[in-house]
Amino acid sequence: MFIKRARPRPSARARTRDVEDEEPAASSPLAESGAAAAEEGGEDEAGSVLNRVKAKKKGMKGKGGRLSFAGDVDSGDSSTAFKQKKSLLSQALRASTPIASSQAAAASSSQSYSAEYLSELKAATPTRAPAADDDDDSGNLSRAARDKYASVIDADSAAGIPDPVAIAAAKNRRKAVVEAKRHGIEPGEDFISLGKEPHPESRLMREEDEGEDGDEDLADYTGANDRLYLGKNANKRAAQRLKGEIGELIEDHEMESESDEETREWERSLVERGGVQQDAPKPQKVKTAGYIPTPIPASRPVPTISSAVGRIEQRMAALKATTEEHERNLENATRELVLLEEQERDLRKQVESTEGKRAWVEEFQGWVETLGHFLEEKVPLLDVIEKDANRFAQERAERISVRRAGDDSDDLALVLGVAANQTRPEEQSASESAPNSDARKIRRQAHADRRARRRGIVAAPDDDGLSTDDELDGDLADDYEAAQHEIERRVHGLLEDVKAEDLRDPEVGAAVRFAEWRKRYPEEYEGAFGGLSLVQAWEFWARGEMVGWDPVRSDATLDSFRWYRGLYEYSRPRMEDDDDDDAMDLEPDVAPEGDQAVEMVSKLVVPNLLSALEKYDPYSARQTRKLRDVVDFVGMLLGEDHRKYQDLVRCVIGVYSSHIASLATAVAGAAGPIATRAPPYNPAARSAMQRFVRRRIKLLANLGQWRRLALDVKDLTARVVSLTLRPMLAKTWSEGGGDEMGAKVLAVAKELPPNLVQFLQTGR
After folding, report:
1. Domains: count for the chain
2. I want to staple 605 with a disulfide (CB 3.0 to 4.6 A). Which of 80, 205, 509, 601 is the partner?
3. In whole angstroms, what is the distance from residue 434 CA to residue 424 CA?
4. Range of the domain at 254
5. Is residue 593 a contact partner of residue 528, using CB atoms and an 8 Å limit?
């Protein structure tokens, strides 16, 4: 069950009082009609409340007091009566003004102003506005409380005849009490009993019905009426509308604030006009204290010398401890100040060093970029020059190799025969391929003439075959020399348009800058592998210096190049304190990054040597000696265990191995069963056999120089004797001079197998 709280109804007394409050004050001397109304009111006081109400209504219907503002008094029948409504402040003023007396009423009615009446009026008129009195004389209640709870106070205090509504409410309460007692329920003030009969509607009351403030009333604040707008224009219009509504609310609030201010100003003016003033705060009286005598201090004993000395000593000890503490603090502060000054100096040095480092790095980076542009332009031109130089050297080596192969073929044809599958461009017919053909005779004569021109004497039979014969003919030699001069001219032309000295000479540019980097910032230099970077930058000038350098024919050695000397000196920097004569005589120590000349040899020289071995003539003792010196120098720099050094040695032995294999194939073809046999007796066969064997002796002698570096030399020596010399010596052993040549071969060949040694000694 739900109990519905009944709203309080104003009593008859309260309604009557409300009506009475609307009447003008009876004691006001402003209008005569007011006095008459007061007299009529006095006559009706003996009547009942209902009579007073009826009388008041009747008086309101009649002619009332009028106020005229510059109008005609007699024309009041047709004009509307003006009735001033008194505020609570005016009513309180009327109640608190003690002017309503019998003498005043008589004087008012008679319109006489005597001296006594005037003096009474003057005495009754206050010289200042009366203070607002909030206390009620009868009930000790403030006027504000009476104004707010007037109906309740009147209902409790006033006794009057209840109206029908109050009677009906009392009957309902009594009936509810009887029903509650019948059901055994203790009734409360808001108890409402419900009957047992069925109800067509639910007895539960909705929240909005009970409070009359449901969601519909708060829809503007809860967002229930908000809509979701679709489209750009709709959202724009909604935003404009919302902006306008917010502006209207702001304007309304400002207007309400202004209206409230005006209302307060108007009420304040009415209060001042009515003569009611608030009590000013009364100043508090300052109570002056009377004479207070100074208290007499208690008597103390006279201090002794010992106690005074003790206090002085304690004070001195405290001062001494304080002084020592201050001195320690001063020392600590001084020490910290010194440390701070040192730190400041260090920071300044670091800042200066960092700024100098930044400037130097920017300058070095600019030079590196310039060097990069220079190399991008010049390196492709250098590649073309190197390719042409290698092509010329390869062509020269091929011509010499082909000519030596032709000499061997001619000698084999005179001793053993002609191979069946041998075809040469100059031997197209069977008559020309014969051992004693004119073409072979012409080649043998040209070979003899070359030896004669080289030696300056007529060819000697004993020395035939021992000469290297690694030179070109006259016209070809001149062409080769002209090509070499052209290569040198093109190399020098690479730097003709370069004016910067640091780009023309790496010892002035790259070496100086990298040495400064190593000296200034050694940690960054080692971390960035500055030495390897220098080798990479110096590679261009090293390649240009070695263009046309043939390691097997040139007299120049590796340590004679400028790049080698520059890198060697760069890798062994002299210290600043090495100014004495003894230090100048000693060779400086190698830098921590190592010898950069070794890095250049490993990176550039070894690949060039591997390419130069394709032009190496294994029959030339001079080329073999030069090549052996270069290989030993590389081994000394890199070490014999270095991978690139071992690859170089294997490549040298590979040249001998491939040449011996091709020579063995040629001998086997000339001595084969299907080969064209040589004539049974040929006076030139003996000299041909000697020339052939002498060339093999030179091959064995050159091969023996690599015996310490390679283990395959012993096997290759045995293959030369068994595959190339044995067929020739076996056929000419008894009558053709084979025994003599066998002894010479045995003197050159070392560590031969026993069967080959026996053959060279006995011919079997």
Report:
1. 2
2. 601
3. 13
4. 236-275
5. no
